[in-house]
């Protein structure tokens, strides 16, 4: 029996091989198999090696046992896997090369570095129509069944699905984090940060993009980018089925979150009482309050990989290589032309050529990191590390981020209004999610509503928000410090003193996010070892206006909570003081400044490190067509090009940038 099967498989293989054409990317009608000469031949690694991926990994499952995962493992569907030591590998998504290929080839038309939010859509569009061959290189692995569960979103910040970056120590901010350093995790997976994010779908307001265009970035006005948002989108939103502002035929599903707590309604009712409008925040008329629109599909995470790569795993001209870490872009120093990349995979070093272009989609930390390692960056900085300078550009010199304050906790006198790990981790809820795509496990870890406000200290004219406030049905205390606090790397002294005492009381938070910080950060190389993270300088709250705006937003949130919709549940600000702020009067401006400086939390929207700008902008790294200045055949296409802060979380913008980038590249090479 076995041997019969083997024989069958063998014959099948022969058949497949026989069908491969000399032109190995074309469809299968032909006769010749792929010759060895077209395969890339790796070398062994000498100088800097990817030791992490070689060394045997210590897989102990998930740090900080998750009740939700335990509940899922008790369902009949997953029972078989209960004893798997590497829980995250259960039903892990795989990306093998298309049939007949035994390894990566020596050259492709395009090489895309990073299969993140932008990289996935880019690779998918470039390989459409089979006119060009594409190699997509990704340092991370395929997503797991559990990364799909919205309720678990914060968990992955403690796993191998992230790059565990730390911001450099900055006195006076992040004081309540471990070692007083802010944690900047970024996604490391096929799907990138869209595999670990909170799934909030947001685009930014017309004013944001029109300001970007007005700086000389032709093609980036709201009117011009909207079609690219809509192209990807497959919206299924209650009350918006006739909206002109949403796409319905794309691949990226955008839906309402099936589970809603009563607090989400209280949030919108309270906003109404304060005069805020209920809006579609992803329409041009977006200044107001709304339920979250989420990148989920029937209650399960819709990553960029699921949306754009899954259906195309068998495209012969799209080769996807996970666990492949790029360390350098190959650039001819004389002609200043990019011609390939160097990467590490399974402890071996590959060099592969790009006939048309190399595209960096490695995100806002690694795209500038790779540019500098390859000789494109500030001249004196590169020279100080003995990196030969190919082109002097201000790579990494601009870095904006969206900081927030997740420290408010409002307690309630009623029960069953908030989510707690204990009450959502039931077999029934696990089955609801897996079978029907609904129930409490579809919650975006408690995040439910969003509102754009203009604080009373804003100097903007018109309806231009300076703060986004995020409503939720959970607080740092509701998961007993297991997920959110660990995701922030909150120090134990702070958690134990302020949040542990309210673990058994229902509580929720409302988070203000500073939309347009005046402070600006930057990043630099620490060494020329590509495996060492760059030094990240957030420069948070350097400008007094930033602190003042956050304090003003806390006042606004307090007004919101003091309205009847919240008061009928007895919502009350927890008055446990941050122990390091004891010298100030609770609820004074000075107290809130201290608290904000203690829990200065990034919402992970680092941008501008490869800033887009016209030739006249000395701080620009790429032009409005995303081509790196001074280097031929090299573009950056990801969130690092966004030149200014916008009222958006950055996943949808990165996907839009991927769409628009693909369109521009196809134009350049006549591929449409
Ligand atoms: C915890 C968290 C929550 C968030 N929540 C939201 C949210 O709710 N809504 C929202 O809109 N945004 C959210 N964001 C932000 C958003 O997800 C990111 O800004 C967006 O995904 C960035 O897309 P990108 O394409 O620029 O980069 P990424 O998606 O980060 O992609 C970069 C990819 O390149 C790979 N890579 C990097 N270096 C290399 C290398 N040297 N070799 C090979 N591969 C490499 C990485 O592994 C990664 O897969 C969140 C982010 C985090 C971290
Ligand atoms: C990494 O591995 C290489 C080769 O296997 C070895 O020479 C080097 O010392 C290692 N480096 C570190 C930091 O472990
Ligand atoms: C794996 O890690 C755990 C906890 O981090 C540790 O207790 C254990 O000894 C490690 N096992 C190996 C084989 O390194
Ligand atoms: C803004 O509102 C706060 C109270 O909510 C008040 O103390 C402050 O004076 C106001 N500031 C301005 C500039 O109106
Ligand atoms: C909670 O407090 C509010 C306001 O004080 C009150 O109206 C309500 O009855 C209380 N509910 C419970 C269950 O105690």
UniProtKB/TrEMBL annotation:
Residues 1-18 form the signal peptide. Residues 187-210, 363-377 form the Glucose-methanol-choline oxidoreductase N-terminal domain. The active site is at 605 (proton donor), 649 (proton acceptor). FAD binds at residues 193, 326. GO terms for molecular function: flavin adenine dinucleotide binding; oxidoreductase activity, acting on CH-OH group of donors. It holds the Pfam family GMC_oxred_N. Keywords: FAD, Flavoprotein, Signal. Its cofactor is FAD. Belongs to the GMC oxidoreductase family. This is Glucose-methanol-choline oxidoreductase N-terminal domain-containing protein.
């Amino acid at each position: 029996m076995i041997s019969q099967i083997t024989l069958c498989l063998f014959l099948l293989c022969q058949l497949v091989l026989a069908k491969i054409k000399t032109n190995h990317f074309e469809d299968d009608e032909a006769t010749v198999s792929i010759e060895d000469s077209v395969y890339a031949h790796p070398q062994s690694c000498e100088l800097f090696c990817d030791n992490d991926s070689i060394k045997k990994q210590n897989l102990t499952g998930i740090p900080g046992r998750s009740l939700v995962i335990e509940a899922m493992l008790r369902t009949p569907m997953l029972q078989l896997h209960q004893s798997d030591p590497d829980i995250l590998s259960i039903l892990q998504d795989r990306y093998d090369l298309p049939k007949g290929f035994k390894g990566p080839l020596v050259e492709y038309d395009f090489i895309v570095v990073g299969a993140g939010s932008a990289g996935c859509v880019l690779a998918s569009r470039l390989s459409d129509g089979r006119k060009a061959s594409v190699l997509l290189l990704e340092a991370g692995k395929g997503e797991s069944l559990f990364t799909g569960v919205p309720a678990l979103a914060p968990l992955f910040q403690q796993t191998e699905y992230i790059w565990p970056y730390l911001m450099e120590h900055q006195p006076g901010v992040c004081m309540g984090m471990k070692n007083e350093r802010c944690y900047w995790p970024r996604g490391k997976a096929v799907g990138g940060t869209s595999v670990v994010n909170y799934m909030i779908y947001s685009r930014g307001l017309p004013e944001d993009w029109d300001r970007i265009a007005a700086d000389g970035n032709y093609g980036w006005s709201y009117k011009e980018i909207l079609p690219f948002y809509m192209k990807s989108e497959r919206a299924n939103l209650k009350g918006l089925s006739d909206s002109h502002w949403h796409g319905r035929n794309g691949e990226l599903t955008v839906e309402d979150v099936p589970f809603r707590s009563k607090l989400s309604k209280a949030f919108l009712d309270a906003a109404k009482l304060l005069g805020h409008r209920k809006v579609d925040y992803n329409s041009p008329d977006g200044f107001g309050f709304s339920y979250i629109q989420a990148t989920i599909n029937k209650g399960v995470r819709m990553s960029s990989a699921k949306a754009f790569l899954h259906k195309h795993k068998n495209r012969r001209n799209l080769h996807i290589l996970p666990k492949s870490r790029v360390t350098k872009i190959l650039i001819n120093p004389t002609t200043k032309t990019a011609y390939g990349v160097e990467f590490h995979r399974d402890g071996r070093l590959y060099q592969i050529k790009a006939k048309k272009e190399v595209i960096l989609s490695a995100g806002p930390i690694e795209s500038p990191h790779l540019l500098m390692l390859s000789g494109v960056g500030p001249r004196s900085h590169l020279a100080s590390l003995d990196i030969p300078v190919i082109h002097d550009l201000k790579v990494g010199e601009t870095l904006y981020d969206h900081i927030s304050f997740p420290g408010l906790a409002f307690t309630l006198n009623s029960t069953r209004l908030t989510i707690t790990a204990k009450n959502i981790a039931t077999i029934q809820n696990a089955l609801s999610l897996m079978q029907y795509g609904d129930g409490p496990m579809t919650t975006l870890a408690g995040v439910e509503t969003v509102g754009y406000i203009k604080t009373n200290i804003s100097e903007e004219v018109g309806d231009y928000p300076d703060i986004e406030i995020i409503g939720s049905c959970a607080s740092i205390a509701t998961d007993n410090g297991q997920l959110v606090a660990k995701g922030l790397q909150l120090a134990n002294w702070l958690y134990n003193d302020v949040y542990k005492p309210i673990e058994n009381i229902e509580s929720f938070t409302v988070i203000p996010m500073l939309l347009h910080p005046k402070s600006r950060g930057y990043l630099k190389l620490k060494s020329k070892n590509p495996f060492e993270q760059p030094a990240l300088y957030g420069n948070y709250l350097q400008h007094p206006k930033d602190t003042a705006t956050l304090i003003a937003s806390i006042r606004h949130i307090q007004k919101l909570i003091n309205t009847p919709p919240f008061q009928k549940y007895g919502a009350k600000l927890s008055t446990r003081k941050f122990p390091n702020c004891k010298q100030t009067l609770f609820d004074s401006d000075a107290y809130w400044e201290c608290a904000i400086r203690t829990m200065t939390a990034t919402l992970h929207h680092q941008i501008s490190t490869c800033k887009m700008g016209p030739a006249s902008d000395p701080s620009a790294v790429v032009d409005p067509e995303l081509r790196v200045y001074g280097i031929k055949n090299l573009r950056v296409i990801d969130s690092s090009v966004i030149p200014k802060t916008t009222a958006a979380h950055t996943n949808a913008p990165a996907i839009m940038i991927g769409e628009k980038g693909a369109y521009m590249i196809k134009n350049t090479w006549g591929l449409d």
